[in-house]
Design a protein that fits this description.
The protein is an alpha/beta fold. The protein has helices at 15-23, 50-59, 88-96, 122-153, 157-174, 187-196, 220-232, 241-248, 252-261, 268-279, 304-311, 313-317, 327-332, 336-341, and strands at residues 4-8, 41-46, 63-65, 68-73, 100-106, 204-209, 235-239, 282-288, 292-299, 319-325, 346-348, 359-364. Helix 1 runs parallel beside helix 8 (241-248) and helix 4 runs antiparallel to helix 5 (157-174). It starts with a strand and ends with a strand.
Length: 366
């Protein structure tokens, strides 16, 4: 199961620099001119989790494999994208394929780096991008909702439900608000919204790209972005893409001291990934043994067979039970054998809802 976050924003706000730092590659060409990124670059990033190293230490695992989150570096947007201006159609199509939007906003001043509007205003930049996404959704729903309503009147129950739910989204868009604020009363209505693939229904994480001196505490620009995120029910983090790019080239054993000198406890990578996890309502479970300790990603609320399916479809299809130990119990008991002896190893069936940090062994028969 893969989860992907699309990195978006106006040209020259630091998208590609952040992408390169996140993936520790130079796959995306970072240059000081619009559209330096044409095709979306995709990179998978290991999710830092100190629990995994602890489990590997206890089990004496030969390998440690982190779970991963995908990031897509999408070409910069300009006004008129919803009408095909610039790389508009391609931009909107790329966004449609991701699970969440990581919106990079320029929160730094630098006369050497061109801004498309010759000013630094992260709120205006955010509104420019969001307006184009809303216009695209608005145009789509103004065509779809009347057709669905007509089918509903002819007795199509599915179309009738879709007309009601998407009609709410259309009202919001006409009022200048994103579709993610649409109320869904039950799982069926949520399914309708998901299937509609509305651009403004995707969860948003604002990344405030600041200068090095503001990496620890942010600045006035980032404070305005945090206020905007709070008002929208979105999330925001402060990152210095320049610092992250520098860290990416350093040996791992030197990074801690470098961060400490800057007054930082962790990398921007860790903050972005943690926020992305929360944004997508994800959790991590572990499989542990002498060969490898491995982290896996599933959606919060997933049951044991779905977790098994994250490893292999046969595990889900032939699921019998899951031998489960909570992370804290695994550590306190010194591993699987100690947890079993202490009665902390549980036999969980098909209805068990997986908890973050569960250490699991699946029994199955195909």
């Amino acid at each position: 199961m893969g989860f992907r976050c699309g990195i978006v924003g106006l040209p020259n706000v630091g998208k590609s620099t952040l992408f390169n730092a996140l993936t520790e590659t130079a796959a995306a060409q970072a240059a000081n001119y619009p559209f330096c990124t044409i095709e979306p670059n995709v990179g998978n990033v290991g999710v830092p989790d100190p629990r995994l190293a602890k489990l590997a230490e206890i089990a004496k695992s030969a390998k440690v494999i982190e779970t991963q989150l995908g990031f897509v570096d999408i070409a910069g947007l300009v006004r008129g994208a919803s009408k095909g201006e610039g790389l508009g159609n391609q931009f909107l199509g790329n966004i449609r394929e991701v699970d969440a939007i990581v919106h990079v906003l320029r929160c730094f001043e630098n006369d050497d780096i061109q801004h498309v509007d010759n000013r630094v205003d992260p709120i205006a930049d955010a509104e420019t991008v969001e307006t184009e996404l809303m216009l695209s959704d608005l145009e789509s729903l103004e065509k779809r909702v009347p057709n669905l309503a007509k089918k509903g009147q002819q007795g199509d129950k599915e179309a009738k439900l879709a007309a009601v739910v998407l009609g709410r989204a259309l009202d919001l868009l006409r009022d200048g608000k994103p579709a993610r604020l649409t109320e869904a009363n039950d799982a069926e209505e949520l399914r309708v919204l998901d299937q509609a693939q509305l651009l403004t229904a995707k969860p948003v994480l604002y990344v405030c790209n600041v200068n090095e001196e503001h990496a620890a505490a942010g600045n006035d620009y980032s404070a305005r972005v945090f206020a905007k995120a709070a008002a929208e029910g979105a999330q925001a983090v402060v990152v210095s893409a320049a610092i992250e790019a520098e860290i990416a080239t350093m040996p791992a054993d030197e990074r801690g001291e470098f961060l400490s000198e800057l007054g930082l406890e962790e990398t921007g990578l860790a903050r972005v990934i943690r926020a992305g996890y929360e944004l997508l309502h994800l959790l991590t479970f572990f499989t542990v043994g002498p060969k490898e300790a491995r982290a896996w990603t599933i959606e919060a609320g997933s049951k044991a067979p779905q977790a098994a399916g994250a490893i292999h479809s046969d595990f889900e299809r032939g699921f019998i039970r899951a031998e489960t130990i909570a992370f804290d119990d695994y550590v306190a008991c010194g591993g699987e054998a100690g947890a079993r002896d202490a009665g902390k190893l549980r036999q969980e069936g098909k209805e068990y809802v997986v908890h973050d940090g569960d250490v699991m062994l699946f029994r199955f028969n195909v």
